[in-house]
Amino acid sequence: MTAPALTASGTAPLPAGGATLPRAVHAEWIKLWSVRSTGWSVAAMVALGAGLTTLVCALVAPDLAAGQEGEPVGAFITWGLLFAQVTAVVLGALTVTGEYGTGMIRATLAANPRRGTVLVAKALVLTGTLFVAGVVTATLGWLGGNAFLSAEGIGISLGDDGMLRSLFGSGLYMAGLGLFAMAAGLLLRSTAAVVSVVLALVFLVGNLVVLLPGALGEWLTKLMPGNAGSRIATPESFNPLLLEPWTGFAVFAAEVAVLLAVAAVVFSRRDA
Amino acid sequence: MCQAPPHWQPLAHVLLAFPPPGGDPVIVASGLTKRFGDRVAVDGVSFTVRPGRVTGFLGPNGAGKSTTMRMVIGLDRPTSGTVTVDGARYADSPAPLRAVGALLEARALHPGRTARAHLRWMAASNGIPAARVEEVLDLVGLEAVAGQRVGRFSLGMGQRLGIAAALLGDPPVVVLDEPVNGLDPEGIRWVRTLARDLATEGRTVLVSSHLMAEMALTADHLVVIGRGRILADCSTAEFIAEHAASFVKVRTPQPGQLADLLRRSGADVTRDGDELHVHGVDAAATGELAAGAGLVLHELGLVTSSLEEAFMTLTAGSVEFAAARPAEVTR
C-alpha cells in the first residue's frame, strides 16, 4: 500500500447533515442487508414456513376430507410458521447480539450516541422486514397447501373466516417475536443465550404450563407470549384454550412492550 | 505540571524555539472519574486538548487511556466529572461523525460486512454522501479490498478501515486510540504523517499510545496518564527536557581541578574516580574550560538516557501489570 496523496478533507466540502431518525433507519437497513445471516434467516423462514405448510397439507388433505383427522382444517393452513418462527427469533437476536459480539455496538453508538433513536431505528427495520417476510411466507404456504386441500374439496379461500387475517397476522406475530428476541438481546447480549431462552419460553414453557393445576395452568397457557401471539396467525387452532386472535395479540404486544421498555432503560444506562 | 527544565538541553532548546500553535481548548476533561465496581479506572482526570497540534495521550496498558477516550465520545458514562468537545457533550452533537472522528478499537466491526458496507452505513447515519466513502477508502489505501469482508482483514487493514471511519465526516476533531497497533513500519509512518497533517490543517488531534518513542515523534504535546491519574501535561519538548536527563561525561587525570572549574561556571558535578558527570554545561563548554586551564581530557561525551527509560521511570509506580523484575526488561 502506497502513501496516498489525498487530503483528509477530500475533493468537496460535505453538505450539511444530522443524525436523524430517518438516517438511523437507513443505516440500520444497510447494516441488516450487508451481512449474510439476514438473507439466510429470511430464506429459511420462507422455506420452512411455506414448505412445511405445503407438505403437511399434502399429507393430511385426504384424511381431513374424509373427516378422519378430527382436527380443524384451518389449523393446518399456516402450520409451517410453528417452525419458521425460530428464524424470527434468530434474526431479532442477531440485530443486537451480533453487534455486542463483534464490538460493532461501539461504532453504532459513536455514529449516533442518542440510544433511543438507535433502538427505534433497529426496531423499525427489524419489524418491517419480519412483517413482510411473515406475510410472504404465510401467503406462499397458503397457496401451496391450499392446492392440495382444494383438490380434496376442502380448500380455504381468502374470503373465508380468518384466512386473510391469518396471512397478515403471520407478519404481525413474526415482527412481534423478533422484537421480543431483540429486547432479550439487549438484556443478555449473547446470541446463544437469547435464542435458547426465547425458544425455550415459546416451545417448552409455553406448552408445559398447562400441566400446572386448575385455572393457573389454563391462564398461564393463555398468557405465554408464544401462545397469546400466535393465535392471530392461524384461522383455527389445535388448542381450544387460547385467547381470541386479537385479544391474544394485544396481550402479546403488551408483553413485548414491557420487555422492550426494560431493555431500553438498561441499554440507555449501560456502558457500550 | 512540567516544571521549567532543570538542565539546559540542546534538543529541547531547539524544539522550544518553535512552539507549536495551540488555540482555545476543544476537548475539555474536568474531574473525569470512572469506576468499574471497586476498581478506579480513571481517577479525577482533568486535561485539555487544543487544535492545530497533535496531543499524545501516553500511558502504560491499563492506565485508563481507552476508558477516557470512550468517555469522550459517550460510550462510557463517567462516574463523576465531565468531558466536552467544543463546549458540548458528544451525545448532544447534531451530527457526531462530522464533529469527532474516532478510532476506538480496531475490531469495532462486524467480520461479515465488507469494508465499503461498513463505511456506507456510517455515512448514511450522519447524512454523509456515499461518494465520501470512496474518498476515505482511497485515502487509507483500502480501495482495492473495499469489497472484501473485514473478517479476512489483517490487524493493520482493520486499523486503516478504522481510520477511514474516523475521517468519514471530515471532522475538526480526531481521536485515535492506539492507531499504530498492528501496523508495519510503513503504516506507522503513514499514521504519524497523517496525524501531523490533520493538526497542520488546524484540526484537534488526540492520539493515544503506550509507546513513548512513537509519541515523541508524533506529538507536540503530551498528556501522560498512569493508574488513572495525570502524571504530566506539557509539551513534548518540556517532557524530554525534564525527564530524559542528559549529562556530559568527562574523564580526566585532574578530576578535582576540573570539577572546581565547572562548578564555578554554574555546573552541577558529580565525581566517580577520574570520571565526572556534568549537568548544566554542555560538552563544548566543558572542553573549552579544560583547554583554557590546560587540563588533560581522556574522554568527553554527551550521555542521554532514552525517552523510553524516562517514561518507565515516570510511570514505574503506576504500571498495572508489572513484570517481576522490570529493571531487566528495560535493558
Automatic annotation (TrEMBL), chain A:
Does the entry feature the keyword Repressor, yes or no?
A: no
Q: Which domain of life is it from?
A: Bacteria
Which terms are listed as keywords in the entry? Membrane, Transmembrane, Transmembrane helix
Q: Where are the transmembrane segments?
A: 40-61, 73-98, 119-143, 163-187, 194-216, 246-267
Q: What is this protein's record name?
A: ABC transporter permease subunit
Task: Report the source organism.
Answer: Geodermatophilus maliterrae
Upper lineage is: Bacteria, Bacillati, Actinomycetota, Actinomycetes, Geodermatophilales
